[in-house]
Each structure stands twice: as C-alpha cells, then as structure tokens.
Amino acid sequence: MLHEKLSPVYDNVLRRNPGETEFHQAVREVLESIGPALGKHPEYAESKIIERICEPERQVIFRVPWEDDRGEVHINRGFRVEFNSALGPYKGGLRFHPSVYLGIVKFLGFEQIFKNSLTGLPIGGGKGGSDFDPKGRSQREIMRFCQSFMTELYRHIGEHTDVPAGDIGVGGREVGYLFGQYKRITNRYESGVITGKGLSFGGAQVRTEATGYGCAFFVDEMLKARGTSFDGKRVVVSGSGNVAIYTIEKIQQLGGTVVACSDSSGYVVDDQGIDLALLKQVKEVERLRVDVYAKRRGGAASFVPGRSVWEVPCEVAMPSATQNEITGRDAELLVRGGCIAVGEGANMPTMPEGVRIFQEAGVAFGPGKAANAGGVATSALEMQQNASRDSWTFEFSERRLAEIMRDIHGRCLATADEYGMPGNYVAGANIDGFKRVADAMLALGLI
Ligand code: NDP
C-alpha cells in the first residue's frame, strides 16, 4: 500500500515513463517503504524530494557502431543514466546484455542511489550499458565494441563526475578495454574514472570478490541475528558469473555447502558441494556453460537444462543472476523446502509477490540494495586508493568490506526497529538509504 501522498507521485512516474516496467517496479518498492519517514519528516514532501529523486538528473542515449571479425558493421545502443549526485559523483556499473533498454538502466540506476547511500561512502547513483550481446564474440570484437562505446561515453564521465564499473557482461577484461580507450582519447591517466580495474593498472584488492563476499557476510549477519550461522547449511546460488562465484567461495569458507548454481541454459546440482576450482576454470577461464561443469565432474553432479534452480531445496537461497528470477511460485517452493534466509546478490531478483511470501513466512530477507552493496562499497575504496596513489593489502581490504557489511546490516535492523517494523530489512534499507540522500538534497537547495 502506498502512503496517500505517494500515490500521485507513483501515478506520475507511470505516466512519464511508459513501458519501463522494471523501473516502475523498483520505484514502487521504495515508495511502499518510505511512507513512515514522510510522516516524521514533512519537509521531504514540502520540498518535493520524492518527485525529484524519481527523475534522473541526466540521461544519455547514444549509437555504438562497431565491426565484427568478418567486416560486417553492427549498430548497438549505449546508455548512461546519471540519476542522483547529491552524495558524490554518479557511481554504478555498465551492463552488456541483449535485454538492456532504458527501463532496465533506470531501475538499476534508481536502486543504486539508495544502495550507495547505505554504504555511508561519498557516492551518488548512476548506471549504464548496452544491448550488445557479448556471448560468442571474439576477444577482438569485444575490444572493438568497448572502444566504440567509450568513444562516446568518455565525454560524460570523469573521476569527479561519473564513475562506471562492471555489471552483467562487463568484467575485468571489458573494464581494461574501456579504461584503455578513455586514457587514449583524453591523454590522462585518470585511474579514478572507472572501477573494477586490473591490479596492474590501478585496481583494488578484493574488488573482484567484493559483491559475492559482501553478500555472504550480510547473510552471515542475518543468520547470527537469529542465533545460527552458515555452518552445515545447504545453500543454493543462482548464476555462475562474478557475483555467484565469489558468493560460493565465501560461503564455503564460512562452513556452508553450496549444492547448486546455474546460468541461462539451466542448473547443476552437486550434492557433495560445488567444486569451486572446476567452476572457475569452466566459467572464468574458458567462458563455457554450466553443463560442461557437470560433464567434467563425472557422476557427482548433474545438469538440468531449461529449469529454475529454485526447485532445489535449501536452507539459504542466494539469487545472484538477474532481476525477477524468483517468482511467487519459486518463493513458495523455497519456503516449503525449508529456506530460512535469502540474500539478494543480484539486483531486484525477487518479484514483489516473492518478497511478500518470504516476509510472511518469517524468512530473513536481505534485499539487494543492502546485501550486494559490498561491490560498490569496494569500488569507492578503489577510488579512495586511486586518489591517494596507494594500494591496500587483500586482508585489510577484506576487513574493511566485512565492517561495511556489518554496519549496513546493523543500520537496516535499527531503522526497521525505529519505524516499528522489526526484522524488516527491506523497510530498513529503503528508509535509511532514502533519508541520507533526502537530507543531502534538502541541504544542497533546489538541485
Ligand atoms: P555476470 O555477467 O558475471 O554473470 C551473470 C550470471 O547470471 C551468469 O551466470 C548469467 O548466465 C546469469 N544470467 C544473466 N542474465 C540472465 C538471465 N536473463 N537469465 C538467466 N541467467 C542469467 O554478472 P554479475 O555476476 O556481475 O552480475 C549478476 C547480478 O549481480 C546482476 O543482477 C548484477 O546487477 C548484480 N550485481 C553485480 C555487481 C558486481 O559487482 N558485478 C554489484 C552488485 C550487483 P549466462 O552467462 O548464461 O547469461
């Protein structure tokens, strides 16, 4: 239910952004949570803070022409949505996936505002990407695409303006090509212009691992708050990309057993626990599909094509692939199968009906904004190291990440308590993230 002051705001968002269903969903989820904050702080409504937050500060859409290995020309569309800079330079990743359109980039950019605010670090919210499909493309094609993408993007970004990073389809390799082109065009070694860089050219320790590790730390805190831990728990992780792999790694270190993971072709079940070295070899090194993992693992694992990984019973579910991957039916299955905690490594992976089912069943539910904030937090630490021309050790960086995740967890719980919704991490994350941005916007005047 929406607060009476928020219904017209939401209607206006629907009217002004037709067809952008993921963006509508992300806005609605935040507006449903922040009603109580408006009651306590009438100044937010008086200054039209919510209306302002729902409208990006700037949206850039551009043509990305590139040539494949056979000499054929392709045209893709590039996006950068600079959503909110009240707390710092716009910060958020780039996604390369054929499903990308303005509505996806805006949903991700909107979520990013509150996530970045929750980290307590000086970063605003933005997001970008392209409908380019990297699957099946050669290394040189990927390089040419990244160079063409940056040839337009460079004029909109900068270490004090807008700092992109990776997301789906954009990992260390792509960030390298993007940074290389930025450096070439501008003639500046501006390390802080993009994060997720390789360690040899300004990257930070633990950035590769940060989103997955951070999500495992967050769920560990949720479990501790309920008097339990990962030790001996059966866990399912969806996806097998950057976030999934490092979620699995940290859960294994914390004593959990990850029995299944997936990609868009299907899922693998491995009851003895995923063999992480083999998974990394198949997905990170050879860039193959998960069925290859099952084949190489012999009889220990099986591949189930074209089905949802959420049919595998588990005590902890870590959706780490993409948006809207857990339906209401999946949530029911998970609850029936004994699931007690969900940590969203992906952005908005649980559909609203699923969130309701988890919360009504008393499942500890950690929304992406809070649970996967470790990635962007470590990106902000990368910017900090770039600015001071310093580099921290792996151990120190991981300790900082763990502290940040503990702090976010604590603030979500404390805010949920303060507003009379104990244990509701969705409300806690939305209200806490919103308030910091709203207060900065009030203080900055009509921006
Ligand atoms: P990757 O590209 O490394 O991996 C994505 C994984 O999800 C792959 O296994 C991919 O399978 C699967 N996947 C993607 N789209 C779909 C789809 N439509 N249906 C089924 N499976 C799909 O991306 P990341 O690991 O970086 O990102 C995963 C999620 O985490 C995203 O929601 C992203 O926004 C979020 N996130 C990422 C952060 C980061 O630091 N990278 C930070 C915070 C959130 P396939 O290869 O078959 O497509």
TrEMBL record:
Catalytic activities: L-glutamate + NADP(+) + H2O = 2-oxoglutarate + NH4(+) + NADPH + H(+)
GO cellular component terms listed in the entry, alphabetical order: cytosol
Annotated site residues (Important for catalysis) in this chain: 167
Family designation: Belongs to the Glu/Leu/Phe/Val dehydrogenases family.
Matches recorded under Pfam families: ELFV_dehydrog, ELFV_dehydrog_N
Quaternary data: Homohexamer.
GO molecular function: glutamate dehydrogenase (NADP+) activity; nucleotide binding
InterPro entries with a match to the protein in the record: Aminoacid_DH-like_N_sf (IPR046346), Glu/Leu/Phe/Val/Trp_DH (IPR006095), Glu/Leu/Phe/Val/Trp_DH_C (IPR006096), Glu/Leu/Phe/Val/Trp_DH_dimer (IPR006097), Glu/Leu/Phe/Val_DH_AS (IPR033524), Glu_DH (IPR014362), Glu_Leu_Phe_Val_DH (IPR050724), NAD(P)-bd_dom_sf (IPR036291)
Sequence ranges assigned to domain Glutamate/phenylalanine/leucine/valine/L-tryptophan dehydrogenase C-terminal in this UniProt record: 204-445
Active site: residue positions: 127 (proton donor)
GO terms under biological process: glutamate biosynthetic process
NCBIfam families: PRK09414.1
Alphabetized UniProt keyword annotations: NAD, Nucleotide-binding, Oxidoreductase
Domain of life: Bacteria
Biological role: Catalyzes the reversible oxidative deamination of glutamate to alpha-ketoglutarate and ammonia.
Cross-referenced PANTHER family: NADP-SPECIFIC GLUTAMATE DEHYDROGENASE 1-RELATED
Chain residues that bind NAD(+): 211, 242
Residues engaged in binding substrate: 91, 112, 115, 166, 379
Name of this chain's protein: Glutamate dehydrogenase
